[in-house]
# Entry
Amino acid sequence: MKKIQMVDLKSQYDFIKEEVADQMAQVLETSSFVNGPMVQAFQQDLEAYLNVKHVIPCANGTDALQIALMGLQLEPGDEVITSDFTFAATVEVISLLKLKPVLVDVDPQTFNIDPKAIEKAITLKTKAIIPVHLFGQCAAMDSILEISKKYQLAVVEDNAQGIGATHTFADGTKAKTGTMGHVSATSFFPSKNLGAYGDGGALFTNDDELAHFIRGIVNHGMYTRYYHDVVGVNSRLDALQAAVLKVKLQYLDFYNERRKEAASRYNEYFNNHEQLVLPFRAMGCDSHVFHQYTLRVLHADRDALVQHLNQHQIPCGVYYPVPLHAQKAYLDPNVDPAAFPVTNQLVKEVISLPMHSELTTDQIEYIATTLLQFFN
# Structure
């Protein structure tokens, strides 16, 4: 059995390296390293895959979130509601833009933002909602979009972990994550389901006017070279990363299916174990692409389990050990920690196991049986 890794990028690369080399060689031959035809080709491929009108590539996922909020032209002090249980980038960009982050609790099954908590948090200053498709599980977009329409709020999807997932609406129609809100942000960090070989990101929208505005923001506020019409940033996807992503996009559905298969194998070992809560699939198998396979550990020492796995050369992760409301950078004396009972419990219980498209049957068996030994 080969060494177990949280994400096995090397094995994934070995399968596609000739295609990657060919696409990179095209970039090197043209020497068009920033924007250029390769970035445009990837952009068009991703628009077709997502069935979205506009993909705007940028330098990384955090920039994508920040630029999305800049595109909405919010004012300092405007409130943006988002999840307390997620990576800090989501709230980081809100604070950087002098907006007010309003954190709310999450659903205990999906780990995603609780629509009921969103509605309770809305004030006259609320301007936007950022639902996060956490761990690859699509958020409750029916309810979130209803709330958005009712209160005239923008929806910015944080799709950094959910690319390729499909949401099925109550009427049976389907849409890819990242295409349902007013604008969406994603990350192409190497460990993502669609990952580059360095940093990268993109924004998605079906709004022509917003897309045009954002295209200027990512390029120093320019629509014509050296004419700066809006305040912008320097955030562009380089062509070598686009070359990698263009190849890997062809395999994204395959990668996601392999992740789902790995999750199902894990489930076979853990099903009905009284101290383990398996990942929940809110809308069937299409709604979750398993960026992470995350269990809840009940009535046991989660941190001791982490040590047990590490002692047996099994990597694992705790995403996330500290809720955002308790992070030093985002402490607010007016926020009551008791307002987040679900998040406060999850940070004590969650553990993520190795999850990637190259996991083998014997690796999963070893991980699962070793984990179960902890409870004996």
Remarks:
- Residues 9-30 form the longest helix (22 residues).
- The chain has a mean pLDDT of 97.
- The CA atoms of residues 160 and 186 lie 4 Å apart.
